[in-house]
Write a structure and sequence with these properties.
Distance between the termini: 79 Å
Shape: flat
Number of domains: 5
Largest sheet: 7 strands, parallel
CATH superfamily of the largest domain: Tandem AAA-ATPase domain
Oligomer: single chain
CATH topology of the largest domain: Rossmann fold
Structural class: alpha/beta
Mean pLDDT: 85
Helix content: 40-55%
Length: 649
């Protein structure tokens, strides 16, 4: 037997914790042992009573006749000789005392959420709306119910709301009835149609409803739930099916995809990814109701908004193509000029923008190149590196800028070298910090020895002349010091550590952005370091004009109200970032291992260290304020020097 009843009317139940908490937990279980099943029913009886009373009121102990019947029908259990109507009353009282203590600390709702989550819905009013398929004039049915408890299978038990007037009749149950019906009263304050039903008494009756009455409830569902009512609606309403203006954005016929491409619109009305016929569109826009049967299913239609959206996009369609940047902005959910459109959010509910097939690889980040390995690359690329090379080639051949933002150590250098080997349309320019010139020379000699390099920097020697080079390397300061770099037209313009141009106002950034190139690549592990202005400056280099001017971009970002999805979607096709911690990227990278190594001080270091400490302690006695802080900082530097090597002190 799993339960023991003690002479003091307490229970010993399986598990750890307070026996009263364990007893209430039984209410949500389905034990097979008869003694546990008996106490489960008693716990459910208590919780049902608790949920039907206003906060602060204690559930009344079951009548003696009910307790007598329970004790007589109880299964054998350890300590069963102590089971009686009185012991059942004592257990009820002890459980309620513990529960009221828990509720006093927080709330009844929080208590139920933590200890008996299924019972949160007991004692609540439900509004049900279902289809009434046998009545064409009134195709919906309404019923209000309330929940009285849970079935043996754990399902809520619903009773028509009119039964509550009988169940809670009498002055004794008045507070319970008020608690039950108060959410309806709150809903009536914000929904006139609920108030009308309450005053007329129709809310207690099952009703057959016309379309607009049902739509009124559907639209009011958030207000009803906020008032404390539970709403059960048809499954199709959760998906909110709507016919929408379907706008397909793609290149004009005969136009190649790229930064200079013109994009056109194809406007149609579609439902469930299928275009409607002209007759279906005409019938749809002629409907007066907000719910319409379309292709055998109820759908929501706002005729005015749908017609307004259709007219708007038909006007844009007739106005002719838009620029590539304007089209990409619209596909990202922004306005063509990145200006805040006060009606845009309302219109987008009835509009679905989609990219034409030729645009989808760009928006979805596809790498359609899938080129064979280059024999001139003296290395085998990892799968993610090959994807990176394919992506760089794809964007550069479209004349679009690309930001390779892989985590440090994932091989951005070798991906760029492989990209350069795969293209031979002319010389490319690589701008790097001076400290990385040697690294690029070594990596190119190791992985791409066929590439002819020219270093436009006084510290480097060259094997080739500039006009013979496949790749010219220089540093950011040298761009302003060697005018010929600005006069040359480059195939690829590549920036390593591209955060060097994050400040758009510097002469260095402005000079770099003026360089002429077919396409551009930025390498950085931090596309955004401190502010979104860094991102704008980076894209002003990669794809000038995509994010508008600095002021337009700043105003647009403010208008987003911290909802950055349109910005993310707008820049996502041009940024590729992989992390070392992502096992999908690199699965054989071992975890980082840190091994502390403690180095002892030599005798000369110990003497100097103690001398500095003694000098500091003596000097601090006479120092105050900023002088005292300065002395401490100076001494810390001296101690670091001593720990490194005593000769540095």
């Amino acid at each position: 037997m799993a339960v023991q009843l003690t002479p003091g009317a307490t229970l010993r139940l399986p598990g750890d914790g307070d026996w009263r908490e364990l007893l209430l937990a039984l209410a949500s279980d389905r034990p097979s042992e008869p003694d546990l099943a008996f106490w489960r029913l008693y716990a459910r009886r208590y919780l049902t009573s608790l949920c039907q009373l206003p906060p602060g009121q204690q559930p009344p102990i079951p009548p003696e006749a009910e307790r007598t019947q329970l004790s007589q029908n109880a299964p054998p259990m350890e300590g069963g000789e102590y089971l009686s109507p009185d012991s059942l009353a004592q257990i009820w009282t002890q459980v309620d005392h513990w529960v009221q203590q828990q509720i006093a600390q927080e709330s009844l709702d929080h208590f139920l959420q933590e200890h008996a989550p299924r019972w949160r819905q007991v004692g609540r009013v439900y509004f049900h709306l279902a289809e009434n398929k046998d009545n064409e004039e009134r195709p919906f049915a309404f019923l209000a119910t309330y929940t009285t408890g849970l079935s043996q299978g754990g399902r809520l038990q619903h009773v028509p709301l009119r039964k509550s007037l009988e169940t809670y009749a009498g002055e004794r149950n008045q507070q319970a009835l008020i608690k039950l019906l108060s959410p309806i009263q709150r809903a009536a304050e914000s929904c006139p149609w609920v108030d009308e039903m309450l005053q007329s008494g129709h809310i207690y009756q099952p009703l057959a409803w016309p379309i607009e009455k049902a739509y009124q409830l559907l639209r009011s569902a958030p207000q009803l739930e906020e008032a404390g009512l539970s709403i059960l609606l048809p499954d199709w309403w959760k998906k909110r099916p709507r016919p929408r203006v379907a706008v397909t954005v793609g290149p004009t016929p005969g136009s190649a995809l790229g930064a200079d491409a013109l994009l056109q619109f194809q406007v149609q009305i579609a439902y469930d990814q299928q275009n409607l016929s002209p007759q279906e569109i005409q019938d749809l826009l002629a409907q007066q109701n907000h719910l319409v049967r379309l292709k055998g299913q109820w759908v929501e239609v706002d005729r005015d908004k749908l017609q307004q959206a259709l007219d708007h996009w038909k006007l844009l369609e007739s106005a002719g193509p838009v620029s590539f940047h304007e089209g990409m902005r619209m596909l990202a959910g922004a306005s063509p000029n990145l200006k805040d459109d006060p009606n845009g959010s309302q219109e987008r509910e009835w509009v679905h923008l989609q990219a034409a097939d030729s645009l989808r690889p760009l928006l979805e980040g596809s790498r359609p190149q899938d080129l064979p390995p280059d024999p001139n690359l003296k290395a085998e690329l990892r799968p993610y590196q090959k994807q990176g090379v394919d992506w760089l080639l794809f964007l550069s051949r479209l004349g679009l800028g690309a930001c390779l933002a892989d985590d440090m150590g994932l091989g951005k250098t070798i991906q760029v070298l492989a990209t350069l080997l795969a293209q031979s349309q002319g010389p490319s320019l690589l701008i790097v910090p001076a400290s990385l010139l040697g690294n690029w020379r070594a990596e190119a000699a190791r992985f791409a020895p066929k590439l002819k390099l020219y270093f436009a920097h006084p510290s480097e020697t060259n094997q080739y002349e500039p006009q013979q080079a496949d790749l010219v390397l220089t540093t950011y300061p040298q761009i302003t010091r060697q005018p010929w770099l600005q006069q040359q037209s480059w195939h690829l313009l590549i920036l390593d550590e591209a955060q060097a141009i994050k400040n758009a106002g510097t002469r260095q950034s402005q000079t770099v952005k003026k360089l002429q190139a077919t396409s551009r690549i930025a390498l950085t592990g931090t596309p955004v370091e401190n502010r979104l202005g860094d991102l704008w400056s980076l894209f002003d280099f990669l794809n000038p004009g995509l994010l508008g001017s600095a002021k337009v971009f700043s105003d647009w970002v403010k208008s987003l109200n911290h909802q950055f999805a349109p910005l993310r979607q707008l820049v996502a096709p041009y940024i590729l970032r992989r992390l070392k911690t992502d096992r999908k990227v690199i699965s054989d990278l071992p975890d980082k291992t840190e091994t502390p190594a403690y180095c002892g001080l030599s005798k000369p270091q110990i003497k100097l260290y103690e001398k500095v400490l003694q000098t500091l302690a003596k000097a601090l006695e006479s120092k105050t304020g900023i002088a005292r802080k300065g002395l401490v900082l100076q001494s810390l530097m001296q101690l670091k020097q001593i720990c490194n090597h005593h000769s540095q002190f």
